[in-house]
Amino acid sequence: MKKPSQPFADLSRTGLPDLRWRPGRVLAGFFIALCIALLIGALLAALTFAGRSFATTGSTVADIGHLVRMSAIQAGTSTLLSLIVGVVLAWSLDRLRFFGRGLIVGLLSSALVLPSLVVVSGLIAIWGRVGWANLVLAPFGISTGASIYGFWGIVAAHVLLNGAFAARVLLDRLEAIPPEKLKLGRSLGLSTVQRFKIIDLPAILSSIPGIGATIFLLCFTSFAIVLVLGGGPANQTLEVAIYEAVRLDFDLGAAVRLALVQLVVCAAIIIPASTLTPAANLFGRRSELHWPEGMLVSAVQTVLLIGLLACFCAPLLAVLLRGSGTAMASLFGQASFWQAAGTSLWIGLASAAVSLGLAIGLGMARSLQRRNSPARMILGVPVFTYLAVPAVVLSLGFFLLARFVGVGPAQAAPLVLVIANALLSLPFVFATLSPPLEALAARHTKLIRSLGLSGLAQWRWVEWPLLGRPMGYAFAVAFVFSLGDLGVISLFGTSDFSTLPWLMYRAFGAYRTNDAEAIAAVMLIVAVVAFVVIPRIFEFLTHARD
Amino acid sequence: MLVIENLKYRHERGEMDYRFDLEIERGKIAGLTGPSGAGKSTLLDLIAGFLPPDSGDVVLDGRSIIGLAPENRPVSILFQADNLFDHLSAGANVALGISSKARADSPEVEKALADMGLSGLSKRQAANLSGGQKQRVALARTLLRNKPVLLLDEPFTGLDEETAHAMRAIIREIVARQGWYAILVSHDKEDIAALAQNHYRLENGRSHKV
Ligand SMILES: Nc1ncnc2c1ncn2[C@@H]1O[C@H](COP(=O)(O)OP(=O)(O)OP(=O)(O)O)[C@@H](O)[C@H]1O
Ligand SMILES: [Mg+2]
């Protein structure tokens, strides 16, 4: 039997990073980590410095305590419902086998990076004042009004995105249950409930706190969804308040104070949460053994699955149907659209390339360090930037930094967008690439070392061909993530410098709903195409050289 | 002469203190047996440089190699599995052992493969080779690299009797012809009887000559 080899387990017994093998790679990883740390440090310094130097004009400074409380209630509700939806979806998907299951699982994986404005647009298309629901209900004299705006609309959008994310991670855990356990359970004839309690629950329980904390943080710092669906100061997050302080009240002092509170709250959540679970691995191994439930339970699962998937897919379908046709044709006639589309495209590609580079650099260095070493931990930390410093705060930091070094927002904007989005998508890219990098190191390092391959040869012959698929997927994730970004652009966008989400938000604001819907449709189509095409391109490139 | 001299090691959080003493003559194969977990693979890792010993020395023809990094040691290893990169062709796997610029279809590679009875398989992806063919591709690469110390960690396990028989013959012949020093770890008495001129047994963390 093969034992998992740990080629580094004993090479270095000190806490220091091991530089004896591939020192270039290790140093490159630490260099990347250092650069990210310095950048974040500079942004935080700019924030605190600005906090002291700008007095708030006190125009509409929100009651921060109230804001935090309301956001926490919203995030807590969203998290609870997301987890429930996630468990039900994962449980049903684990048991059922049907045509198109792989596609659905893939859809769930990409939900977290789906542009949230697309989901918002879809929900409005269905539940808004002139949405489908009201069209159907009108003959009966009933109306849902504009109920999608406000608390429950925000929660619904959050549950759509995060429920899918939770389902994907939990499904991974269920599929990683060792087949021996399933065989044992089956031969004991466990009932549905017993099976869930004895086999499933222990497998998913350990990841619930980690997933829950992540979702809570995402909802607590939610920006685009709350901005569009919030409908007033009653439903705000700190992120939205920061945006409004900067762009509506021109009150940098208030914005900085809000940002500092935001940072403290994030830190208070993320520090304990990061010890709860290892980062979710979206590429789990799959056990071949399939143990379906009985007829009745399967029927219930099918109904649940169809219902939840309908809730998930209907808004996306609505976006496509309402956004295409004449709306899209009129959009295509506008020069501002093509300009924004071009900007979105190149910024998305550039930030995805940067993110991929950072993740590979960090991941390679990390896979060269022994388990549980401080060096390994340090190399994993920059990845959490996104959760610790949410988009608008990051954007505000860049905004102030540019001001301090005397660069105008317009000049700084393109570079800021590329870097900020690369940092923000880093956790997803890293989570995708790190496990295959580790697996590769564990499996092949002895052979590579004993053959004395150079670092370049190792990349060319071993890593490049074997990482093609995950690299392509990671690139697509980063691209789609930055394609949908509204947080970073929100402080830098102008009528001259615009991306698709910014253009869409401004169309919403100007009640040009048709334009907004058409842009949402375009973003959705580009996102789907990216997920289909980019991994193929990478696979082609990596195999073409073989 | 390859001398493993008072080589001491203890796994991190491990219970056993290992101490190894072995001597292998040029062109000979030393058999190494012992119960599972006795430390056979650990000893090979120490010789190959994947683990740093707490003390002791490995001396090849009067020169200590203990200070060398694994990639610089005059050592080849053949594991039970994972000796090849599955995504590369047989030829590319062999070529990688020469230099990263060597071509998979060079005459040198073709000849090494042919010597192992694998002519015509150069372009086949390693994943699609049988277990015995994989081991012979790895052996072809070892032959080209021509490092004097050959470490074999249960290389015949999982092969059918005929293939294992053929592999034994090839290995015995190469080691003698090239004047290598080989250590063969095996659970199979027949392997040891057929190949090994000396026989060491590991027990309770010590090596004994049998
Ligand atoms: N990195 C490690 N840390 C701690 N203990 C280890 C480590 N690697 C191996 N061991 C332990 O050292 C002992 C010897 O392992 P080794 O792999 O050398 O045995 P072996 O004789 O090759 O056994 P087998 O016949 O099963 O291959 C085992 O008890 C093993 O669990
Ligand atoms: Mg062993």
UniProtKB/TrEMBL annotation, chain A:
Primary location class: membrane
GO cellular component annotations of the record: plasma membrane
Origin superkingdom: Bacteria
Record localization: Cell membrane
InterPro entries hit by this protein: MetI-like, MetI-like_sf
Gene Ontology annotations of biological process type: transmembrane transport
ABC transmembrane type-1 domain boundaries: 68-271, 341-534
Keywords: Cell membrane, Membrane, Transmembrane, Transmembrane helix, Transport
Membrane topology recorded in Swiss-Prot or TrEMBL: Multi-pass membrane protein
Residue ranges of the TM segments: 26-51, 71-91, 103-128, 148-171, 204-229, 259-283, 295-321, 341-365, 377-400, 412-433, 473-493, 518-538
Keyword Membrane: yes
Protein name according to UniProt: Thiamine/thiamine pyrophosphate ABC transporter, permease protein
Biological source species: Pelagibacterium lentulum
Taxonomic placement: Bacteria, Pseudomonadati, Pseudomonadota, Alphaproteobacteria, Hyphomicrobiales
Automatic annotation (TrEMBL), chain B:
Coiled-coil ranges (or none): none
UniProt cross-references to Pfam families, sorted A to Z: ABC_tran
Top-level taxon: Bacteria
SUPFAM superfamilies, A to Z: P-loop containing nucleoside triphosphate hydrolases (SSF52540)
Molecular function, one GO term: ATP hydrolysis activity
Domain ABC transporter: 2-210
UniProtKB keywords: ATP-binding, Cell inner membrane, Cell membrane, Membrane, Nucleotide-binding, Translocase, Transport
Family assignment from sequence similarity: Belongs to the ABC transporter superfamily.
Protein name: Thiamine import ATP-binding protein ThiQ
